[in-house]
Amino acid sequence: MDALEMEIQAAAKKRARSEAAFKRDDEELRVLLVKGRAAGLGPSQMAKLTGFTREWVAKIAPDPQAAAKRDAMVRRMRKSSES
Predict the structure, then answer these.
(1) How far apart are the first and last CA of the chain?
(2) What does pTM read for this prediction?
(3) Which residue from 64, 58, 21 is spatially nearest to 50, judged by alpha carbons?
(4) pLDDT digits over 6-15, tens only?
């Protein structure tokens, strides 16, 4: 194997390690954002802490109360359509 092939192989291994680290860290951040919403932090506040947009934070960690209201409404709609 020549030097260029070895460099390519090393770079590919390095990229795979970086990708695995990114996925691990991304999942950790997403879990913390969900915990933050449950603790009452808003998406704007968490966006300032992370440097991400408010919309991205809200997508990752939606308002738990809004989700509960939506689920309750869906259940009522299904129940009324079954009658």
Answers:
(1) 73
(2) 0.70
(3) 58
(4) 999 999 999 9
